[in-house]
Design a protein that fits this description.
1 helix; single chain; 66% helix; 16% strand; alpha+beta
Length: 85
């Protein structure tokens, strides 16, 4: 950071002082990174909820299939008992 002070004198004896302050440019990286982080978290949450919903549907389908197999086995058992009579 460099500061410059320029002083000029007019022929009538008055002076005028100009101060130039050289500052580092501000960077808006914090806001941009915050927005990127929020978007990334939203995408991760969406994917996680989709995975959990898919897992519930898959578990329900497996439970339903197991119930049908159990019912079929019971029917086979009943038929076997009728055949023995």
């Amino acid at each position: 950071m460099a500061d410059e002070i320029h002083e000029t004198r007019a022929p009538d004896g008055t002076t005028h002082t100009t101060t130039i302050i050289d500052r580092e440019p501000r960077r808006g990286g914090g806001l941009g990174m915050g927005l990127i982080l929020i978007v990334a978290l939203a995408v991760a949450a969406f994917v996680a909820f989709q995975f959990l919903a898919n897992d519930k549907a898959q578990s329900g389908a497996i439970t339903d299939a197991a119930q049908k197999v159990g019912n079929a086995a019971e029917n086979v058992g009943d038929a076997a008992q009728e055949a023995v009579k």
